[in-house]
Backbone:
């Protein structure tokens, strides 16, 4: 094996370790999907209470993303990922043992801190150790890991509910199946913690912390001695200011306003959630039961959606470094707009039975196909590409702070969308809720065309802020 392939193999290996954080991000987000009935029964919660039980994690995500971005500038990317791994372990155990709604929420918020930290630190870490030529592909693997985590959570939920009879029935050791759904996360969380102990710290963080010798060692191992030394000098040159990164760097001192790149990051992060993707992931079982499918069928549909998502991400891995980020975002938005519009039509024209539930009839197949087309377009575009761009679009000096603010916006929007869905479901119905998501997808087309700039093939040291 030659030096270059050996270096690439090492880069891929440590990138895969970082993406275990993405897997846990996905698993922790998706596991809630099959536990909604169990939570309602165990804690006697109604629609607003259920919405908070499901979305409480997202409050932790918002703050986890914000503070991880800032703390990573002080303590390092790898260090924050280790903390996230510990929080994943605590949350997985605690969510399963919770005996009250408040106790459950506390453990879910702890998990949210972990998810938020992993969501911004894993792509940031990968972007800072990967060569520009492969950066898009390697960060996109993070999205494959997220979807794989969701997929595994859906499969686990389906198998556990099937083995127990229902998610609310007693299973191993006389604990309800929905509790075991949370405990399944302990295995990958422990693996993540152990593997993180064997990967190096981000070389760009080491340079910014004045640890030039350590940074040179890491970069030499990644790219070879000659290129490693050159890269250290380039990183030092890109850190134009002589102070440690801080939140105030997001303000353009000369213009006296927040840098435009920050607003673009916030826009990307927010639109990714306003299109409603996590309603499908968090409430998929509830959605399909609401239109007449059984719990078992609804959980199986989740598995199908997860498989479609993984297939879409694999396509993105193959093309993102060839055709770029912006075209994927634009066509993804267009595809989602069409698919969501079709779902709105089906829901709006459906009949209602005596219990007040929608009856889709033959159009149920159309809704199911449209939903999976929507999932495909999201995961070929906004799902992975948003994280790729956030991980690479900010200059070195403001990357941590830019990720902090953008990550907070992303998870704050996620919380708002998730919290309001059960309320929208009982007020304006599925057609009204999906109409809003479709409108957001349409507006996102205009946002991409006007404001988003291509980052394909650009070295991080050359990113303009």
Residues:
């Amino acid at each position: 094996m030659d030096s270059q392939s050996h270096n690439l193999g090492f880069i891929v290996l440590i990138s895969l370790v970082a993406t275990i954080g993405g897997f846990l991000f996905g698993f922790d987000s998706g596991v809630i999907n099959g536990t909604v009935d169990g939570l309602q029964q165990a804690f006697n919660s109604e629609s607003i209470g259920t919405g908070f039980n499901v979305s409480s994690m997202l409050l932790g995500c918002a703050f986890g993303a914000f503070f991880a971005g800032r703390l990573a500038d002080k303590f390092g990317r790898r260090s924050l990922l280790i903390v996230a791994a510990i929080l994943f372990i605590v949350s997985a155990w605690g969510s399963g043992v919770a005996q009250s709604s408040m106790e459950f929420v506390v453990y879910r918020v702890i998990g949210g801190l972990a998810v938020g930290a992993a969501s911004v630190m894993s792509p940031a870490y990968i972007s800072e150790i990967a060569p520009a030529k492969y950066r898009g592909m390697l960060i996109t693997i993070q999205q494959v890991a997220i979807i794989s985590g969701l997929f595994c959570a859906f499969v686990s939920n389906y198998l556990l509910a099937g083995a127990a009879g229902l998610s609310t029935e007693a299973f191993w050791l006389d604990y309800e199946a929905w509790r075991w759904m949370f405990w399944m996360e302990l295995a990958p969380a422990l693996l993540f913690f152990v593997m993180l102990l064997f990967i190096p710290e981000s070389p760009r963080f080491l340079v910014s912390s004045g640890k030039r010798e350590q940074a040179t060692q890491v970069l030499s191992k990644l790219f070879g001695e000659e290129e490693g030394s050159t890269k250290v000098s380039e990183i030092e040159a890109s850190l134009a200011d002589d102070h440690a990164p801080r939140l105030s760097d997001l303000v353009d001192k000369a213009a006296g306003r927040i840098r435009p790149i920050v607003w673009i990051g916030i826009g990307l992060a927010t639109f990714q959630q306003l299109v409603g993707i996590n309603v499908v992931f968090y409430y998929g079982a509830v959605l399909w039961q609401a239109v007449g499918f059984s719990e078992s069928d609804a959980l199986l549909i989740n598995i199908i959606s997860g498989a479609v998502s993984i297939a879409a991400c694999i396509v993105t891995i193959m093309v993102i470094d060839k055709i770029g980020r912006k075209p994927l975002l634009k066509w993804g938005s267009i595809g989602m707009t069409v698919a969501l519009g079709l779902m709105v039509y089906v829901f709006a024209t459906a009949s209602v039975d005596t219990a007040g539930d929608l009856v889709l009839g033959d159009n149920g197949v159309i809704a199911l196909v449209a939903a999976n087309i929507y999932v495909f377009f999201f995961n070929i575009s906004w799902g992975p590409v948003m994280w790729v761009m956030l991980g690479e679009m900010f200059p070195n000096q403001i990357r941590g702070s830019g990720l902090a603010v953008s990550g907070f916006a992303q998870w704050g929007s996620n919380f708002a969308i998730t919290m309001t869905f059960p309320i929208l479901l009982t007020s304006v119905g599925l057609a009204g809720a999906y109409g809003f998501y479709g409108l957001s997808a349409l507006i996102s087309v205009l946002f991409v065309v006007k404001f988003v700039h291509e980052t394909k093939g650009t070295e991080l040291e050359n990113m303009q802020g």
About this structure: Residues 96 and 179 are 4 Å apart (CA to CA).
